[in-house]
Amino acid sequence: MQYRSGVRPIGRSGRSALRQAPEPGLVRAMSVVVLIVAAGRGQRAGAGLPKQYRRLAGRPVLARTLAAFLGQPRVDRVAVVIHPDDRPLYDEATAGLDLLPPIAGGPTRQDSVRLGLEALADLGPDIVLVHDAARPFVSPELIGRVIDAVPAIAALPVVDTLKRAEDGKATTGPARDGLWRAQTPQGFAYQALREAHRAAHGGPELTDDAAVAATAGIAVALIEGDEANFKLTTPDDFRRAEALLINRHPDVRVGQGFDVHALADLPGRPLMLGGIAVPHARALAGHSDADVALHALTDAVLGALAEGDIGQAFPPSDERWRGAASDQFLAFARDRVAARGGVIAHVDLTLICERPRIGPHREAMRTRIADILGVDLDRVAVKATTTEKLGFTGRGEGIAAQAVATVRLP
Q1: Which of 28, 237, 337, 339 is the most buried (most CB within 10 A)?
Q2: Tens digit of pLDDT for each residue in 376-408?
Q3: Rounded to an integer, what distance in angstroms lies between the CA atom of residue 250 and that of residue 308?
Q4: Which of 61, 18, 46 has the alpha carbon at shortest distance from 241?
Q5: d(CA 101, CA 99)
Q6: Angular region, 341: left φ>0, alpha ψ -120 to 50, beta rest
Q7: Domains in the chain, start-ordered, CATH in brackets?
Q8: Is this structure's pTM higher than 0.85?
Q9: Which H/E stretch holds residue 349?
Q10: Quick check: 43 pLDDT over 70?
């Protein structure tokens, strides 16, 4: 690491690096810690999970947000404030990332930030950036501009005419001149923001840190934000975010997969197809749960990456996979796409059999596959056909599946 006259960079090696005394003749650079607020429930986004843990193009939203800060050389450490009930979801979403221990949040955003700031006391950073977990598209440029202008927040000027609503009717609203839409990150001197939150605790609830700072008399600069730095709140926001991610990946790959499993009398074993149990007199035979649909999809995704096939990744000679659920095979392929910085744009599955009838179960299969891949439902196609009673599928001896996956890489 090089030093320039008068400035000493702060390392990323641990807590002590943030408080290390400068060497003689050197002035320590400002240390920066990012506090990601991820304790909310995100009910308006739908889909069950809190929105920060939903998969966006195959990767958890929180992981995408964290990646934006972990890659910044001016950021020393990153900590996440979480809901106490979400620790398993947090551990899964952040596996392998270099983060400070998670911090248990409170019942409101303001409480969560205050608790997060108190938890950083031992580090004593100079600057703290507070950022919403559900804003995964924050740019390096915006992060840098907020750091440079502390105390400052990212914001966008209001361009639409504003109206007040009374009994469902539009009335005259405030003039838009001088009005801005607040975004995050919001950056402050750490000690000043902690004291402001302490003073505001127990008073009226405030919705962002700029408001908390204002109550303490801190003048906060407005830094022009970015329209792409929007907050994921509704299902439409997730669709917009998926489209944005896909457009950022110009290398289009297509892979195909094909698999066959025999039908057999296997008492007590369900017939697994497309990640769900389908009522039927017989089940598919195989080393794992023999879900022919998910096997074909796994090969299609791995084929798009040119990374071999399911047999190489999960050899049937390995006893670990005896009776294993095939959703973990497809999840492995999904994670390989994410590891390459890519997104899954679309998958198309065709099941070939006489029985069982696929139609009654099609939507449940689509939903389960979309859930495993972490993509929107309209990116998953499931179809079925027969061979007009010809061949082994026509005789009811087995089920075949073929799949095509479209993957986009940077």
Answers
A1: 337
A2: 999 999 999 999 999 999 999 999 999 999 999
A3: 22
A4: 61
A5: 6
A6: left
A7: 15-245 (3.90.550.10), 249-409 (3.30.1330.50)
A8: no
A9: strand 343-352
A10: no
